[in-house]
Amino acid sequence: MDFIGAYSPIHLKFLLEGFLVTLEVAFISIVLSFAIGIVIGVLRYARIPVVAQVLAVGVETIRNLPLLLIIFFTYFALPEVGLKLDKLYAAILALVIFESAMLSEIVRSGLNSIEKGQIEAARASGLTYIQTMWYIILPQALRRMVPPIVSQFISLLKDTSLAVVIALPELMNHAQIINGRNVNYVIPIFLLVALMYFTVNYSLSLVSKRLENKQL
Amino acid sequence: MLDFSIIVEHWDMYMQGFGNTVKAIKLALLGSLLIGIVIAVFRIAPVRLFNWLGAAYVEFIRNIPLILVVFIFFFGFPALGVRLDSFTAGTLGLTVYTAAFIAEVIRAGILSVPKGQMEAARSSGLTYLQAMRYIILPQAIKLVIPPLGNQFINLVKNSSVLGVIAGLDLMYFGDLISSETFVTFDVYIFVAVFYLVLTVPLSLGVGFLERRLARRR
Question: Please, are residues A90 and A160 in contact by the beta-carbon 8 Å criterion?
Fold first, then answer.
């Protein structure tokens, strides 16, 4: 094991660059999938005929598939039907497809946790259904959704590492490139990479725990 | 339209991959249940050092990516002089990773058993381990089954990382078939169907158990 060689400034910088890509991909994906997740969650909650059923089947199918398969799909299979995406977009698209299905379930159960009386009271006081959703139900539900959404973000951050299969230049990919240079770097590099993921994710989980306690 | 001749002509390969995926899942489930129970008991046992060790395991593993755990077994161990084949390395990685999540589920289940149960068992002369084994765990298991089911579904999906290290599983054979036929889209649709065959019944089962448990409360 060669800790000194493995932790040379060039390597550290290279890993950090990879980590920035990881964080960037994770951040873009969570924002997009949160928006889509809210739309899907609300549509399913509102039980609009046909739309709700179609979405239910879609969400359940995606949730029951490995993310890795979806990444393969967006990168290797879509070009076959004429949609060629570069690595970054293919990875983001796959993450967004998978995570919006996950987040829509969080949104839906958040909405379901709001007492029905809230809707009835809002409607009775003259608000339209849309207004009720926007001003009464969503704000309350969103607050309850924060802890599970943070956990989902942690999963997402970890899941970006799967994009190593399409050689997206994120943290795992950069780690593997360094490891390829010298077998004595492997253990030190993996330790450092684990520490990088751990630091960010564990901090997030502490935030989530604090938010959870605040609400009870 | 899907080209069904792919699945007909490569049925054996799909089946081989499917078989290995199922085998990896079985081994990892068994291993992670065992480790998970031990870790969970460590986390609640009245010994500080054990609590700390259990918490360290769970927090560390849960906050790093699965693929990193698998890579440590596959690329890291050879650097220490232990060479593992890809299937073994992948299954070990899956086991170690899943165990952390299972430990948390079981811990939550044990903690949901009222404290008086342990006190009563202890005062009637059982040792701590006997009380755990005969009084607490049997009660906890009922509450724990639906969330364990969810972990099981995750395990099935996560088993696909074996494909990344050529672990002879469904993903790996999908890769192989697509490089033989030069078809990707259809090949992976069939791979997806095989995963759904495993996960959909599990999801439906877990959903059913969750609703039943919710109604009983």
Answer: no
Residue of B nearest to A71 (CA): B188
Query: Is the pLDDT reported for residue A216 higher than 60?
Result: no
Sign of CA dihedral B5, B7, B11, B13: positive
Q: In terms of DSSP H, where are the helices of B63-169?
A: 66-71, 77-79, 86-111, 115-123, 128-130, 137-158
How close, in Å, is residue A164 to chain B by CA atoms?
Answer: 9
Please list, in sequence order, all residues whose beta carbon lies within 8 angstroms of the beta carbon of residue A33, skipping any fewer than 6 positions away. A95, A96, A98, A99, A100, A102, A103, A156
Q: Looking at CA atoms only, how far is residue A53 from chain B in angstroms?
A: 16
The DSSP letter of residue B151 is: H
For A196, which residue in chain B has the nearest alpha carbon?
B64
pLDDT for B197? 96
pLDDT of residue B53: 96
Residue A84 in contact with residue A159, Cβ under 8 Å?
no
pLDDT interval class at A169 (50, 70, 90)? very high
Confidence (pLDDT) at A215: 58
Q: CA-CA distance, A183 to B173, in Å (whole number)?
A: 28
> DSSP string of A187-200?
HHHHHHHHHHHHHH
| Ranges under pLDDT 70 in chain B | 217
pLDDT in tens, A74-87: 999 999 888 999 99
Would you say A171 and A197 are in contact if contact means Cβ atoms under 8 Å apart?
yes
Question: Which site among B14, B21, B70, B71 would you substitute to test the A interface, given the most A Cβ atoms closer than 10 Å to its Cβ?
Answer: B71
Q: What's the whole-number average pLDDT of chain A?
A: 92
B191, B211 contact by CB (below 8 A): no
Does residue B21 belong to the interface with chain A, where contact is any CB pair within 8 Å?
A: no
CB-based contacts of B76-83 (< 8 A; 24+ apart in sequence)? B76/A186, B76/A187, B76/A190, B78/A183, B79/A1, B79/A183, B79/A184, B79/A186, B79/A187, B80/A187
The ipTM (two decimal places) reads 0.91
Find out whether A193 and A7 touch, Cβ atoms under 8 Å: no
Count of other CB atoms within 10 angstroms of residue B165: 22
Tokens of B58: 């769970």
Q: How many CB pairs under 8 A join A and B?
A: 112
B158 CB neighbours in chain A (<8 A) are 66
Confidence at residue B217, expressed as pLDDT on a 0 to 100 scale: 62
Confirm or reject contact between A56 and chain B (CB < 8 A): no
Q: What average pLDDT score do residues A180-194 get?
A: 94
Whether this model's pTM surpasses 0.80: yes
